[in-house]
Write a structure and sequence with these properties.
There is one protein chain. This protein is mainly α and 160 residues long. Helices cover 74% and strands 0% of the residues. It has five helices and no strands. The model has no long low-confidence stretch (mean pLDDT 84).
Length: 160
Amino acid sequence: MSDDAPNIDDGGAAHAKKVGLVLLGVIVFVIVALVLDAGGIPFDLTYRVACAGACLWFIHTLRIDPPEAGWRRIGLGLAALVNVALFFTPVVDRPSSRGELMLFAIPDLVVVLAVRIAALRPVDVDQRARRVQLIACLVIASAVCAGLLWAAVAESRGSH
């Protein structure tokens, strides 16, 4: 085996452990959600709270810039406000679906991109190019977010 060939044994056990923990977490979530459903808290609400929490956890674990960069905390706070606000929209008046995670992830993406763009102070050509790319991503994410939320609202209004 050459020095350039990847060693398959390096991450196999660690990856299997992570997959196992994720599967265990899903099983625990389903059990807790079913117990809460039996206690009067709808499964759809529990599922949506878990999706919102997963999105916020992902934002919390971003390691793009040094920890002292304040934009991550601001983005996390604003994303949390957006997630809470989504619970007071017609989007939650419909049955939950497999794509529910995207109803929280895409608006969170828009918020975090906007905060990141506002915090980025380009000082050279490379950073200006990065900012232009982030702005293009923000425009696309905003359009996808608008379409997704429009479809969810239209579905909830049509189901009543």
